[in-house]
Structures are given as C-alpha cells and as structure tokens.
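User: quick one, fold this
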Amino acid sequence: MEIPVLKYVDILIGLALVMLLVSTVVLAVTQSVLNAGFARARHLRRGLARLIVHLEPSLMRQHADYLAKLVLRHPLVGQQTILDFVRDVQNDREIARAAKVQADPEVLPRVSPGAVVQREELAYLLIELAAGEGPLMDPMDTGTTPKTVADAQAALAKALQLSGVEDPAATLRAIRQKVVENERAHPDQPAARWRADAIADCATTDFIGKLHASFDSTMARVTDGFTSESKLWVSGMALIVAMAMQLDAFQLIKRLAIDDSYRDGLVAAAQKLPDNAASDERAKESLELLDSPAIDLLPRIATATPPWGAVGPYLPDRNAVPGVLFSWVLLSLGAPFWFDLLKNLLKLRSLLAKKDDEDRTQRNTAQPPVPPSNPVTTGGQSAALGEAGDLAATGALG
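Assistant:
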C-alpha cells in the first residue's frame, strides 16, 4: 500500500523545483537591472557621503556627495568601462574636452563607480586627496585640476586639519613608508593589514577616530538599503515573469497530483542537484535543469488559455488570475529559499522512501508463526484452551 505522505512530498518537491527554476530567471533579470543601474554603488555613495559629512559638517556638507563620487571612481576602487575614451585623440578634440572640464560642475573620471570600499582604503584615499596628490586631482587626464576638484580638495584638507591631520602630505608619506616597513616585518600578512596598521600608527587622530567609529554602522545601513531595493525589484520581476509565462501555481499543483510520470520526472531531476552547491553555483545548476527532457516546463505549467488570448498579451485568463498571483507570491520568496526548501524535502523523501521500502519488504516476506500467548496453564492443562482458559475451573459453566 502506497504511503500518501510520500506522494504529497513528491508534489511539494515538484513545486519547489519549478519555482526554483523560474526564480533563477527572476534573479538573473533582477541582478542585470541592479548592475546596469549601479544600485550597490549608489547606496555606497550615499553612505560615504554621510561619513564625509560627519568629519566636519560645516565644511563638508557642500562637497560630501561629490567627494564620495570621486572616491568610488578612484583607480583602486572603480572599474573600467567600454565608455572610456581612447587617449590618443586629435588635438582639437582634446582642447574642446579640456574646456568642457572647466565648465562641468562635477568632473568625474571615465570609469564606473566601485561597489566595495574598505575602511583603510577610504582613509588613505581621503588623506591622499587632501594632500593634493593622486589621480583624482586630474580626473580627466587633461593635465589640469578642475575648479570643482580644487574646491573640494581645499575643504577636505581644512576638515582634516581640524581633525588632527595638520599636514596631509607628510602624513601620506609616513603611511607609505610604514606600509613598506610592515611588509618587510610581516611578509605573511595581507596587504590590507599592512595598510591598516600603517594608517593606525601614522594617523592616530580624531579623523581616524571619527571614521572608525561610524564606518561599520554606516555600511550596515548601506547593506540594508540595497537589500530592500533588491527585494522590491525581485517582487516586480516575479510578477512580470509569472504573467509572461502564464505560471498558474494551482494548475501546476493539480498537474503534479494527477500526472505520475510528470511528478516522477521532476523528482528525478531534483535529485540531480548537488547537496553542497555553493551560492554562486546555484543559478548555474538550476539553469542546466531547464534543458532536462523530463521537465518540459513551459508546455505543462501553462494554463489552458494561450498567452496571446482575448484578455490581452501576457495577461492571464480571468480564471487563472488567482493561480498567477499565488505564483507571484511564491516567486517573491527568492531562489535561495526554494533551493534550501528543495534540499530539505529531498532529505525527508529519502527517509520516507526508505521506510516505505522496509515495510514493503516485510509484507512480501514470509513471517514465522506467532507463538500462543498462554503456552502453559495451572494443573498442566494445554494452552489450546485459548484466551478464555478453563471455564469449568472457574464455575462459569455451572
């Protein structure tokens, strides 16, 4: 006799696998949109601007956002893009570009903003900029320092002086020398440790104290902001994908309940997923399953109404709206949720299947006869009297 619980678990496994595959598509589209819009860099820029303002609010409030943009486009932090111009251009174009630089209120290097900056990197880059050194002083490589950069550099240098860094240039030279000394003394340590120790030794001022006290909490707020925006994008993309694919979760569950071959195919495909797949490999593993002939995803999960029905393009039939909306809710949970749930369901199924096999084997195997419960009675009478015993001995027959 088949255990109904095992069938229900298989239905959940099929549902989880389909949601994992579609959630992978949602995740890929969402990541592309966020990367194209530099969402991480945008949230990081706001966090860095708050940190810079905290150094000296009266001086840095006007230049904080621009300085944050410059820092994120430093060659040590930013990323080169295809929008970068070739350096060997004609002289007239170079002159025209130089004239534009002087009129541009916010001159920025021709690179994409970075999405990660370490605490010691930020301290070093701010000191470098305050000292009037480094590539940020000439962001467009024209040989001149734009007025906006010069004004921001002057305000930053004054703010650092008020915070204890009297001579940014001398402090910068001391840090560089200390980094070399740390590398010689501790070659086994990472470069970030050499730089962090050098900054702590050579720039132990109120500037470093303010930066260290606020950096971690500010970055935590940056992470929260990016996570919230990502969830909104995932929810929006999940709705679009669910409607475009006509993904009716109720029809899918019904199909899994009545179609044994389809359910078994999904379970077999789910069992191919590795148990210890890394986070960055989950999308690849899921997308590979889309090519499995056992899944045949789109034709089976689509509703009876064609995608281009009378309701309109990519709009579900009126009867399928609840199922599509339920699919939207399920997809909004995200691919990591469905991956973890699928793994747990597969573990539960293995236990139930093992128990089912043991019970089936026991039923199909001849069992030895069960001995009687009362083999001997008082007075040496036979146990064949059964559970009632000797009724004459009790007077029950009289």
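User: anything notable?
Assistant: The first helix runs from residue 4 to 36.
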